[in-house]
Amino acid sequence: MTQAEKEQDNGKEKEKERDKEKEKEQQRGVKRPIAPPTIPDPLQEQIQSNFVIVIHPGSRTLRIGRATDTLPLTIPHVIARRHKQSGQPRHEDAWLLREGLNKPESNEQRQNGLKMVDQAIWSKKMSNGVRRTPVSAEQARAYNCQIRPAVLDSSFRVKWTNTAHHPPHLVGEEALYVNPSDCYNIHWPVVRGQLNVHAGPGGSLTAVLADLETIWSHVIQKQLDIPLKDLKYYRCILLVPDIYNRQHVKEVVNMLLLNMGFSAIIVHQESVCATFGSGLSSACVVDVGDQKTSLCCVEDGVSHRNSRLCLAYGGSDVTRTFFWLLQRAGFPYRDCQLSSRLDCQLLQHLKETFCHLNQDISGLQDHEFQTRFPEAPALLYQVRLGDEKLEAPMGLFYPTTFGIVGQKMTSLQYRSQGDSEDPHDEQYLLATQSKQDQSSKSAADRKAISRPGGGLDGEMSGQGGVGELSDLPRGCGSSGSGGGIKGEMELGPVQGECLMGAGEMEEPLSAHLSRKTAIMSQFESKALGLDKAILYSIDCCASDETKRKMYSSILVVGGGLMFHGAQEFLLHRIINKMPPSFRRLVDNVEVITRPKDMDPQLISWKGGAVLACLDTTQEMWIHQREWQRFGVRMLRERAAFVW
To answer: Is the pTM of this model over 0.90?
Structure first.
């Protein structure tokens, strides 16, 4: 008898016993009080790791595999769906293009960012003590404009995906190579770490969840060789972003347990899993992905809620900036378009091949690259490049170089706005605190707000107000007063009431909330550079001891910062910008980019696999029957982080 069947038999026996007890009570005339059903203690049982599937869904890549696998399957997280009617307009989700790039101020912002990048390059000396000599794009342009491609042997031809049998959907690589003239819509179900809900075709929450279910089911069935009917014997570990959308996580868990039929699930955060995967007990985790960069301080398996920060830029923004710099230098492949999937793939490859953060590499260098597209000859191009290879990745430290205008660029963890299925949530607990507790917290809040250099929730410096973001970290986590609220509060319009406490404030509530909202909107519209964001996240930790731990263990994961020289470059910037008081206290600042010599893109997935093997995770499993009965309340009860 399998493990899942034993569980089902035990559940049936317990139900029969409960029914018998009810019958006896009815016979005796006993009236039972009406009360919400209590959540049972988790079952303690031996779990086989080869029956646990770890899923790490990214914006561009899906990583999925059994917990016992050495490496996960890595496939493009994309689906092509066939049109239901002929003549239907074609829709394709953008890859490198995004909102906010075509505003009147975009080009000016790009140019200003590039000036700051060039100044930073010139100001840092090379290892031999000499300053770099800047290379003008015009020098490369004069050469590149003369280049004509050479035709290569076409024995190996790239082909469009065969759609002659009219499959209803295609997944991964097959979806990427669907001919644009075929009647298919292309959807990326995750964008910037969140579900890609939008107003266009296939953008409803139901449609996005259906895309996820189709992609994951296809990979499990076709590549992991697990029949979908057998998923009732399997468990699932789902990795979610540090700053997550509660409604989206709830719907994905519902889909995995009830639609796909997994017997149980654990939901855990990417940053915590990254520390498990790298074997570190504490670290400031910097996850530079394709479309977002998230930061979080993790201590002993717990993510510090105040230190969570998500920046709405990543590797794809570096790729797009590199293309802009290539065009400025006379890029010889003149038909390249950001709206083409295959051209986006090529640009991604060129960025990964040519770009670096090693300031000792200077001057003009000659490179070559190939283009291999369906229904076209394979071509070999020569290209001469100078500082473009260094300028593009430095956009991560000077995000104005990306030219994104009018978009929300920074996110913090907001409090839950409540869920009708979970009435006894943190809002309920806050509302039912003792008056004495509330009055002491509100007094502490008043002190924190009136203190010069103190901040709202320790997230923002009162001294800096809505001024320069470089001043923001100074107020974070600098005081223990108001610690009760400080440990749990995040900025955001929805938390105004909680932040105020129950006591009287020195200014009217409406005025305080509008001021707080204005500060937040200004903060979120600015993009912190990667080094400033790391300092900000660490400075939001509660104690100096924790901050010291974080400075000595800055873990960089994800594929967005895999450039030659990135570790030394980031370390140099952190040491130069960290507060002077900490330079004396911290013994050594360490940036870790390849723990255990592992691929940084796989570390979080590996941590999920480690999680499956730990005995301590027994109490974190949410079983299918429990989810059917209690719903989202199970996440609050069983999740390893504050839901």
So the answer is: no
